[in-house]
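A reminder from the course coordinator: this example appears on the midterm review sheet, so study it carefully.

Given structure:
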């Protein structure tokens, strides 16, 4: 599910002509922020794998946007 949630993020970043490294780093930072907030507020389940899957989703969104653009 996390992969699907970050695909639009990667898509939007690519459409704005962002560097893929910047997109991946931004997705990782956003994901870490979300996980830290979950931990601090005791809401949801904190898991390191979520960060990995979110970054993969952003990368897939970027790749999909590049593929569609041709």
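Designed residues:
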């Amino acid at each position: 599910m996390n992969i699907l949630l970050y695909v639009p993020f990667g898509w939007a970043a690519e459409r704005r002509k962002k560097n893929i490294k910047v997109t991946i780093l931004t997705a990782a930072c956003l994901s870490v922020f979300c996980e830290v907030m979950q931990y601090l507020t005791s809401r949801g389940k904190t898991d390191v794998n979520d960060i990995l899957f979110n970054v993969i989703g952003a990368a897939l969104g970027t790749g999909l946007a590049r593929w569609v653009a041709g």
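Residues 20-41 form the longest helix (22 residues). Helices lie at 2-15, 20-41, 48-69.
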